């Protein structure tokens, strides 16, 4: 399977995914695509020998469809079978998602369906949760809402700040996403739960 990974920033999840696709793994990374030409993950991908591309979303202003047409053009060059959104911070329209539904994954830093959207760690602390974590799900038109393919749990500890909690969740993302992708690329859909 050919995997394209979409990023917006440092791409630590992209690195974990790319590093996992070796040996008898059924998938290989064929493109790392960013919505910001300055995304730090692009240099990391290039250093790993993975083809990269960037489509800056800013010149497109509010025209999401035009931005997505440019993304789609880059994707069609790489011909991926699976898209992995990894720290990708743009909301995709139903039109784009419809092209990839069933073949597009996302990682979200909460135990979905709790805390869809942004500031998930602060919201978990605010709610007094004693557990938190991350989820990998299939991307559907509704934000952070598709079928759950895996979750990883971490404890919330007394005195935790949002940054401390985020720092406890991120390494679990780096374990969960590669495990889910390996399953998904092999055709399995049973959700994975780690803690
Ligand atoms: C992190 O906050 C992570 O929880 C979320 O996206 C952000 C950046 O991830 N998935 P990455 O380092 O760019 O993969």
UniProtKB/TrEMBL annotation:
GO molecular function: phosphoribosylglycinamide formyltransferase activity
Annotated keywords: Purine biosynthesis, Transferase
Pathway: Purine metabolism; IMP biosynthesis via de novo pathway; N(2)-formyl-N(1)-(5-phospho-D-ribosyl)glycinamide from N(1)-(5-phospho-D-ribosyl)glycinamide (10-formyl THF route): step 1/1
Positions of (6R)-10-formyltetrahydrofolate binding: 64, 89-92, 106
EC code: 2.1.2.2
Residues that, per the record, bind N(1)-(5-phospho-beta-D-ribosyl)glycinamide: 11-13
Site, as annotated: Raises pKa of active site His: 144
Active site: 108 (proton donor)
GO biological process, one term: 'de novo' IMP biosynthetic process
GO CC terms of this entry: cytosol
Domain Formyl transferase N-terminal: 1-181
Domain of life (superkingdom): Bacteria
Catalytic activity: N(1)-(5-phospho-beta-D-ribosyl)glycinamide + (6R)-10-formyltetrahydrofolate = N(2)-formyl-N(1)-(5-phospho-beta-D-ribosyl)glycinamide + (6S)-5,6,7,8-tetrahydrofolate + H(+)
EC class name: transferase
Record-stated family: Belongs to the GART family.
Task of the protein: Catalyzes the transfer of a formyl group from 10-formyltetrahydrofolate to 5-phospho-ribosyl-glycinamide (GAR), producing 5-phospho-ribosyl-N-formylglycinamide (FGAR) and tetrahydrofolate.
Protein name: Phosphoribosylglycinamide formyltransferase
UniProt gene name: purN
């Amino acid at each position: 399977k050919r995997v394209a990974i979409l990023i917006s920033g440092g791409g630590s999840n992209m690195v974990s995914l790319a590093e996992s696709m070796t040996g008898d793994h059924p998938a290989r990374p064929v493109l790392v695509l960013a919505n910001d030409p300055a995304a730090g993950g692009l240099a990391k991908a290039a250093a790993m020998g993975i083809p990269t591309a960037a489509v800056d979303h800013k010149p497109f202003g509010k025209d999401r469809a035009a931005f997505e047409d440019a993304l789609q053009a880059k994707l069609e060059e790489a011909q991926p079978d699976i898209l992995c959104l990894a720290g990708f911070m743009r909301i995709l329209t139903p039109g784009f998602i419809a092209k990839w539904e069933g073949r597009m994954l996302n990682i979200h830093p909460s135990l979905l369906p709790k805390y869809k959207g942004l500031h998930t760690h602060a919201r978990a602390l605010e709610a007094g949760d004693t557990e938190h974590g991350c989820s990998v799900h299939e991307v559907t038109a509704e934000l952070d809402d598709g079928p759950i393919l895996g979750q990883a749990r971490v404890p919330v500890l007394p005195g935790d700040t949002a940054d401390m909690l985020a720092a406890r969740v991120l390494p679990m993302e780096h374990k969960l996403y590669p495990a889910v992708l390996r399953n998904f690329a092999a055709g399995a859909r049973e959700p994975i739960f780690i803690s």
